[in-house]
């Protein structure tokens, strides 16, 4: 896929550079439309904002999964790759979760129980309670996951499905 | 376009129903990835959240344009079409604006000076001041625009480029 993209890109560059010659100003490169998924699962339904995600979590009675990441962070990229390619994760995400990925922090301090860093995955109960008890394996960055932690992340997703307040 | 979509849909339904027969469970239809532009200009750079947009407006010293709309609102759809197809609008948006489109209201009351409705376009100065003075032509919904108001919208975009506080 990367190779295909690269060759398409090379063709585009070649075409645009040859087309651009008669013009005074070189045309801007055609941009690939930004997706709400940002590569974490194009087939999943993503909320755009935290407020929207909370509303959905509450009204659909589903837990919310908030993924903080950055496009230029190699750790985020590596986790994203295994997340997007893992069929079990994609299925449980699609079936049971309200999903939000953010490249910019919110004003809600509860979403950064031990600081702001990426990648960081925080679960929120439909009762609006941040599940600070659902953590990864690193004591200094409790909500961080490495690609090798993908099985733990899946287990955590299964765990967070069991709501904190089951009476909801 | 609507007709084309409809026939594509009919073909898809026909194909999927014929393909689905040998299987026990019908496969889900492949979804089109959601874009951040939501059709308001795939070639433009869109902020995801209001906080992110404000940060960009401030740090890049550009005004922010917030478009409130809904996917299932025909007025929003009609305005989106002329917005996305208008080259002057797309150019000024790309060159001079921080852009945000939202299908969910924010908690900031300043973004709804005369109520929450769609479509609604509100300009925010890089100094973080909502430009309540930049309005459309309807007294009861001052920040609404019809497709026929596209020239006024362009003029308003040119007006909002002149910052409220020029010393910034």
From TrEMBL, chains A, B:
Its main location: endoplasmic reticulum. Keywords: Endoplasmic reticulum, Secreted, Signal. InterPro entries: AGR/TXD, Thioredoxin-like_sf. It is found in: Endoplasmic reticulum; Secreted. GO terms for cellular component: endoplasmic reticulum; extracellular region. SUPFAM superfamilies: Thioredoxin-like. Residues 1-20 form the signal peptide. Belongs to the AGR family. This is Anterior gradient protein 2. It comes from Alosa alosa (allis shad).
């Amino acid at each position: 896929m990367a190779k295909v993209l690269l060759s398409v890109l090379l063709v585009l560059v070649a075409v645009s550079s040859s087309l651009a010659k008669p013009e005074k100003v070189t045309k801007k490169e055609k941009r690939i439309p930004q997706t709400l998924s940002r590569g974490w699962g194009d087939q999943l339904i993503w909320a755009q904002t935290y407020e929207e995600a909370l509303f959905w979590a509450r009204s659909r009675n589903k837990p919310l999964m908030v993924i903080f990441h950055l496009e230029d962070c190699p750790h985020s990229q590596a986790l994203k790759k295994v997340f997007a390619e893992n069929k079990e994760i994609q299925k449980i995400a699609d079936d049971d979760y309200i999903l939000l990925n953010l490249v910019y922090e919110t004003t809600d301090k509860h979403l950064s129980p031990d600081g702001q860093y990426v990648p960081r995955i925080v679960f929120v109960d439909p009762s609006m309670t941040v599940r600070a008890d659902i953590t990864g394996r690193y004591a200094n960055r409790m909500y961080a996951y490495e690609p090798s932690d993908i099985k733990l992340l899946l287990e955590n997703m299964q765990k967070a499905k069991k709501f904190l307040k089951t009476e909801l």
